[in-house]
Amino acid sequence: MCGIVGYIGSKDAAELLLNGLQRLEYRGYDSAGIAVLNGGLSVLKQKGSVSELEKALKNSGQSEQSIHEATAGIGHTRWATHGDPSDRNAHPHLSADGGIALIHNGIIENYSAIKKELISKGYHFSSDTDSEALVHLIDSIWSDKPEIGLEAAVRAALYHVEGAYGLCIISQQEPDKIVVARKGSPLVIGIGEGEYFIASDAAPIVEHTKKVIYLSDGEMAVVTRDGYVIKTIENITQEKHISELDFDLAKIEKGGFEHFMLKEIYEQPTVLQDVMRGRVRLDEGQVRLGGIEDYLDRLKLSSRVIICACGTSWHAGLIGEYLIEEFARIPVEVDYASEFRYRNPVITKDDVVIVISQSGETADTLAALRLAREKGALVMGICNVVGSTIARETLCGIYTHAGPEIGVASTKAFTAQVTVLYLLALTLSKGRTMSREEIKLYLKELNGVPEKVERILKQDDMILEIAEDYKDARNFLYLGRGYNFPVALEGALKLKEISYIHAEGYPAAEMKHGPIALIDEDMPVIFIATRDNSYAKVLSNIEEVRSRKGKVIAIANEGDEEIGRLADHVIYIPAASAPVTPLLSVIPLQLLAYHIATFRGCNVDRPRNLAKSVTVE
Ligand code: G6P
């Protein structure tokens, strides 16, 4: 949510900031802006995309020249929380005399009170944002005591602030520094040669340097051309570990695909191999998950597993429930992180709480994690982004190794999460509920999945044709049972996220308790009807839809001729046992959603109103 970027060094800051904002645009794209220190302080900000901002800079004539002379500055791409997407609400926000510029990711919860007080002191507000209150507060504190300097003024202002923030602040009075602070919204400092980068995630940094420092909550940093000093907000100096980024530029570029989402769908066979790499010993029937090894005994003894997540990660969690209960026979509950934390849940020291998050930054998931930790549960993470807050705050965990996911609609991260959960469930079953031979068979089957996904991807042209037939539909129903029920939810979510068609996922048998009332000739129904123990029942559901003139698109196993007679369209996937089926049945649904959205002219990688990483509650 909201992308932040900062640069201080000797190069053209404006160009670096704009390039960085392009890489961060998946975090928010309502408006964009930069502020640079070029003797004075120049700001350019407006509603719309980063490329529109770039055009505006080119059209700004003489001032463009001076903006390009700057070698320090900050940039922001916004996902609106307070105030509509507009030029005036775009960041950076400025102090009244234009001498201080601030960018902010997060929500200042007590901004109304701060604003009221500042207005009574004569401050005027030119935006509807919560962030603007903070820049005036800093200005007010600094104006009262000019001798304290920018850093101390920011620190003092933060004492008054409730809420979440990732902040970068510059001032023309102290033009050789960027002051940054973090509480609840991630910030990374990139360390170059005589230059430093600041960003809300590593995407804009990786092409310049691989050395990074992740700021922790409650920390501030002053970054200059000569280095950085990191302290807590209480002014205590911190020694920070320098981490090495483990991905390169190619991973965050489109690589010839029209959209990141399509590239990420096609990456799945490789990603699934990466998830297994070094962890699976097929011949021995062994799984080794280094990140949880020290806690394995405790994990196996847990009386209950609670999985908390949001969005697509929550769908992966539902599949995790089925897998862990089936393989390891440990009871599992799955909660929306946002509900879990507000319903006073029963959590004991014997529980294991697994938080699943692609970004590792989702505010609700992070809050659920902290609550579970407070109550003494063993908290484990399944994250994609290495070094993310959730990854760092969990006691143990498993990385999904899916590589950077840029498309806002999650695809490869989902299949990677499900694969990790499959490996986890097998690990928990070892020595308890499954023999090594059984585990071997399940691993063998998992090992065959990447090749089966390749086969499904080869049907892309046929899926595109189906998408064309249904691109104007106004509603869709997705139905599945057992392991395919969460897949139905995920298929419906993909479609609504990127094509803006209303879609609902339901357990197929529940159709009779409501959705059947909606079925007529205008209602396409997607059935995931693979050959498992509920196959015959799902066929009956298909008949029920057909007899009400609904259109049926079925995802079925290769060789299933019967379904060919019942459905209007069939997308065949290779046969597989039920626990691995979600890894296959979800692929055609990702492609279908993608093609329908592109036929409708939607911005697939940046769907309206959504953000990749939701760092506000
Ligand atoms: C947002 C994204 C989704 C994602 C969800 C949870 O809504 O658009 O794609 O599934 O957040 O994110 P997380 O990073 O915690 O998996």
Give the CATH H-level superfamily of the largest domain.
Aminohydrolase, N-terminal nucleophile (Ntn) domain
* Structure annotation, total helices: 21
Relative helix content: 25-40%
The residue-averaged pLDDT reads 94
Task: Give me the oligomer status.
Answer: single chain
Strand content: 15-25%
* Computed CA radius of gyration, to the nearest angstrom: 26 Å
Report the end-to-end length measured between terminal Cα atoms: 11 Å
Unique ligands: 6-O-phosphono-alpha-D-glucopyranose
Weakly predicted, low-confidence segments: none
Task: Write down the CATH class of the largest domain.
Answer: Alpha Beta
Strand order of the largest sheet: 3-2-4-1-10-9-11-14
CATH architecture of the largest domain: 4-Layer Sandwich
Structural class category:
alpha/beta
CATH topology of the largest domain: Glutamine Phosphoribosylpyrophosphate, subunit 1, domain 1
Number of domains: 3
Main beta sheet? 8 strands, antiparallel
Number of strands: 26
